[in-house]
């Protein structure tokens, strides 16, 4: 751009222009750049650094430019490098030399920091809304299947019977922590960096508090060098997004497993499944697979930015321009994932008969038998051993626990009585009646709490 090429005798090599330009991606910051510039112009007028009239000319010009961009009439130019200079050049075209006063008491270094923070705050708010909607989908699924039982797994081996709602609400808890992480990240993004200038602060009597207020920031940055160097808030978003995707990928994996012929626990709605081009019988869980797959891409962006920032000397370095594409991609990926996946979860049909059959396989009540002996006075370790041998015997005889006779039981421990037959899937679940357990009463309570949390967040509490 001519006005910043003053000291050079040559123009930039064409390849260099393309290599260094950020406009192909940072055009997305235009709304925040314009909002920041409008607040800046008002502040300059309030402080008597430019006249009221000049500020009005500038802010009116900026408002028209925003419209041009929104209506697709704006011509972004690579030779103008980035969004900041594209907008400024257009302003000069529109309002003439007075437009050049806008860049008083600021630098692109604090400008880009400001834009990115404004952008991040909005992205975090959008993320929180989508997360809440996802949690709502989990609640609906749990609620619609309140009394469905299924095998709970450890090592992907049937472990103990649980309520399906309990399993689903485990995810609610994970996403609740994600909500907390994003909310926390918001606090760090919510710091206004303008006034830091290029690095040392600006040599004008500006009003930073006024700017913060105009742009709805809670705080202003306390060190100009830090303010133009810091991208922690982007790293934090990407880290929180990585964890959130990790949670999503685990649910995705379960949906993939559960919809397989081998498990057959659920039916994915046709709107969320695809067919195969050569195998007509297939119904593939592509959405869930892509949720699982896109997790890798989100982790990648986090690692990329951490690597970009590592060892960078203070303060601003052009390396930092690399923060944006990964950030944008992470936001787009997470938001679309949450949205599509919520729809998929909400429309899942649970095959309660199949989960009910599966829970009966695999001596899943073994722990309950051991607990039974403990209640009759046996030490837990001994009880565990007795039941282990009983399982081995039953397997040999190809009998389930309920098919064993009392005499067969008694061969393993005299403590077994007729009431051993009252141990059922239902009793096993009902017995786990402690906070955080799978007993229906507890799950009902957890569901009520979850609904309260979502209700509160809707009413803005
Ligand atoms: N496009 C640049 C970025 O994204 C804007 C800041 C440029 N600052 C500079 N001193 N070259 O980081």
Q: List the bound ligands.
A: arginine
Radius of gyration, in Å, reads 30 Å
- Strands across the major sheet, in which order? 1-2
CATH class of the largest domain: Mainly Alpha
| Mean of all residue-level pLDDT scores | 96
> Which shape, going by the Cα principal axes?
elongated
Beta-strand percentage? under 5%
Task: Provide the succession of SSEs.
Answer: HHHHHHEEHEHEHHEHHEHHHHHH
Which segments are poorly predicted (pLDDT under 50) over 5 or more consecutive residues? none
- At the fourth level of CATH, the homologous superfamily of the largest domain is Fumarase/aspartase (Central domain)
- For the record, the CATH architecture of the largest domain stands as Up-down Bundle
Structural class: mainly alpha
Relative helix content: 55-70%
CATH fold call of the largest domain: Fumarase C, Chain A, domain 2
DSSP helical segment count: 18
| Terminal CA distance | 48 Å
Tally of distinct domains? 3
Provide key terms for this protein:
binds arginine; 61% helix; Ribonucleotide Reductase Protein R1, domain 1; Fumarase C, Chain A, domain 2; 5% strand; Fumarase C, Chain B, domain 1; single chain; mainly alpha; two-stranded parallel sheet; 18 helices
